[in-house]
Task: inverse folding
């Protein structure tokens, strides 16, 4: 049984929601495997809240609250996800939500404190799990992502451009442990008001199956900056997922920033329902 860990599982948008879906796939599948064959197609809905706070080069903090919602369809070796967040940003930094949910500081600390909120960008992703007869004991997932600029650009809820990204995730189940490593690359669009560049990302960590119904994840995560106004992001991340029933999973998580380009801290709660 492999673990599905997404490269940007800590991010405010799509990947955060994938954490709850991933835990449900791992734990529920393991718990029910002896009862009946798993369906080739499943549909899951997820919702939750994500909160982070960071200075991003300013003397005062910028707080970001994201209400998350997504739908995930898994069929065969493919998984398709669509996610749409509702974003509330409070603080002095004119901060734009960029590619992969990574913040871009356009004017750090030189604007008055204000609250900006509204729907963010529509995030779409497709993941292909390479068949195990090709990878042996390893699970290899290949993911492509696109962020469509559906948010309000005047409120800083989007860069106003379409962004792309891809990732390779490799894990291996060793008893209750499943160490993983993830490599990603983000290709942001080209807004006219400021400059963005492509950048890599990297994660390393492990999951640990505490019991048939509990799964823990810990990781170190690096995100190269896509803006000259912000340093690279480095974070520590931890989560606990509980499969309450075969179709319902709850996840809580926390993150701690190790660099000025990352939130100082944050956390969230997720609920995922397998509806089919």
Result:
């Amino acid at each position: 049984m492999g673990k599905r860990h997404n490269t940007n599982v800590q991010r405010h948008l799509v990947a955060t929601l994938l954490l709850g879906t991933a835990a449900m796939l791992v734990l529920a599948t393991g718990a029910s495997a002896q009862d009946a064959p798993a369906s080739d197609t499943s549909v899951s809905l997820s919702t939750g809240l994500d909160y982070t706070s960071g200075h991003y080069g300013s003397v005062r903090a910028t707080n970001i609250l994201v209400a998350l919602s997504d739908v995930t369809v898994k069929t065969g070796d493919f998984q398709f996800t669509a996610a749409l967040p509702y974003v509330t940003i409070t603080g002095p930094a004119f901060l734009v939500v960029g590619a992969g949910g990574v913040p871009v500081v356009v004017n750090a600390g030189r604007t008055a404190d204000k609250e900006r909120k509204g729907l963010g960008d529509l995030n779409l992703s497709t993941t292909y799990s390479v068949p195990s007869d090709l990878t042996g004991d390893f699970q290899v997932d290949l993911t492509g992502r696109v962020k469509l600029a559906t948010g309000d650009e005047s409120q800083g809820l989007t860069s106003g451009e379409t962004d792309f990204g891809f990732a390779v995730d490799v894990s291996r189940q060793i008893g209750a442990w499943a160490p993983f490593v993830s490599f990603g690359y983000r290709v942001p669009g080209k807004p006219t008001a400021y400059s963005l560049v492509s950048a890599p990302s990297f994660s390393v960590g492990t999951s640990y199956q505490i019991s048939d119904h509990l799964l823990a994840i810990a990781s170190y995560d690096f995100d190269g900056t896509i803006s000259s106004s912000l340093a690279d992001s480095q974070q520590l991340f931890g989560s606990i997922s509980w499969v309450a029933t075969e179709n319902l999973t709850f996840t809580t998580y926390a993150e701690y920033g190790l660099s000025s380009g990352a939130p100082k801290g944050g956390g969230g709660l997720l609920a995922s329902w397998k509806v089919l």
The CA atoms of residues 32 and 246 lie 8 Å apart.
